[in-house]
Design a protein that fits this description.
Elements: H1 6-13, E1 17-18, E2 23-24, E3 31-37, E4 40-47, H2 55-67, E5 74-81, E6 94-102, H3 109-122, E7 127-131, H4 139-143, E8 160-162, E9 165-169, H5 184-196, E10 203-209, H6 216-224, E11 229-234, H7 238-253, E12 258-269, E13 275-276, H8 283-291, E14 295-301, H9 303-311, H10 315-318, H11 323-344
Parallel strand pairs: 4-5, 6-10, 6-11, 7-9, 7-10, 11-12, 12-14
Antiparallel strand pairs: 1-2, 3-4, 8-9, 12-13
Helix pairs in contact: 3-11, 5-6, 7-8
The protein binds adenosine-5'-diphosphate and magnesium ion (MG).
Length: 345
């Protein structure tokens, strides 16, 4: 048997691509702990996203690449994940803060935020979800949780926990139906508290559900913490597009990198398999052009998505095999992949 050299192993791995990041594993600095013992090679691939659907594929590709080296007949691959931290975030142990925004209400921003958070948590990431829509807080309803956990320590507010996601919302503090009127300084202080005085612990991702539009909450947020990335939700039609274009301008003005655009309610799948484009088409693509950022997903109109929201069990948990859940999970993976590329710089 010829002796296997580390250089050969590295060379072989430099031909294996991360299917989401479209770069090879060596340039991505993902290969750790290479050991060669006779004809056995062992190593760890450290992914930078909680890319659960891709793990098996990457493992398989690595095994194939290494087994093709003359002299290797056994490969032991461990797949690990370490989400990269946005170094701009200083005062919190949160690696990435991702804001979900839209130009107007009712486009499915909270739905996207909730399913994004739950999908990432399902893959093993530590995730928090901050309901910054202080005018219409509906994250508690959509996550099926009514109250905060009792506080164990006096200094920090314990977030609620549902579906493995830590949650904070003004909805926990006011009675339902009570109108929320905010004055500027109050609003600023509540946003600041939500970030700094909540016991978030160590998070890979904090997903922030912004209020619609481009107002004071967005400003208060960026004055308190740097946002690592923004996701903009729109529907396919032109009217919603104009509003969403203002969100693009807002993220740009606040120097928040735009991860991409989500087109929600893109189509309705009919019984015979055809797609009906009830809300028109093209909004997402157009907006992605304006944002100079990718269209990260097209989410169908589906009663299951609405029911998931109303019942507090997001569709990615309630019916993970449905095509809607899969579209939302794929979206979460794309968001995480984009985030890791931006943090990497
Ligand atoms: N793709 C979808 N298919 C079916 N219903 C949806 C979809 N996206 C959102 N909804 C429903 O539309 C309503 C508004 O969505 P929501 O996420 O609350 O919007 P926003 O946060 O932008 O105001 C909710 O009842 C939600 O369940
Ligand atoms: Mg909402």
């Amino acid at each position: 048997m010829p002796e296997v050299k580390k250089a050969q192993v590295i060379y072989a791995l430099s031909k294996v691509q991360d299917p989401e990041l479209h770069k090879d594993l060596v340039s991505l600095n993902m290969i750790k702990d290479v050991e060669i013992e006779d004809s056995t090679v062992s190593l760890t691939v450290e992914l930078t996203t909680p890319a659960c659907p891709l793990r098996d594929r990457i493992k398989h590709d690595v095994e194939q690449a290494l087994l093709s080296i003359n002299g290797v007949d056994r490969v032991e691959v461990v797949i690990g994940a370490r989400v990269l931290e946005d170094k701009k975030i200083k005062d919190l142990s949160i690696k990435n803060i991702i804001a979900v925004g839209s130009g107007k209400g009712g486009v499915g921003k909270s739905t996207v935020a909730v399913n994004l958070a739950v999908s990432l948590a399902k893959c093993g990431a530590n995730v928090g979800l901050l309901d910054a829509d202080i005018y219409g807080p509906n994250i508690p309803l959509m996550m099926g949780v009514e109250s905060l956990a009792p506080s164990v320590n006096q200094k920090k507010i314990q977030p609620a926990l549902a579906h493995d996601v830590k949650i904070m919302s003004i909805g926990f503090m006011v009675s339902p139906g009570q109108p929320l009127i905010w004055r500027g300084p109050m609003l600023h202080s509540v946003i600041k508290q939500f970030l700094m005085d909540v016991d978030w612990g160590e998070l890979d991702y904090l997903i922030v559900d912004l209020p619609p539009g481009t107002g004071d909450v967005q400003l208060s947020l960026v004055q308190t913490v740097p946002l690592s990335g923004g996701v903009i939700v729109t529907t396919p039609q032109q009217i919603s597009f104009d509003d969403a274009a203002r969100s693009v301008a807002m993220f740009k003005k606040m120097s928040v990198p735009i991860l991409g655009v989500v087109e929600n309610m893109s189509f309705l799948r009919m019984e015979d398999g055809t797609l009906r484009r009830i809300f028109g088409e093209g909004g997402g693509e157009q907006l992605s052009g304006v944002a100079e950022a990718p269209l990260l997903g097209n989410i169908p109109i589906d009663e299951k998505i609405r029911v998931g929201g109303d019942q507090g069990i997001p569709v990615v948990l309630a019916d993970p095999d449905s095509s809607s859940a899969q579209a939302l999970e794929a979206l979460a993976q794309s968001v995480a992949a984009r985030m890791s590329m931006i943090v990497r710089g």
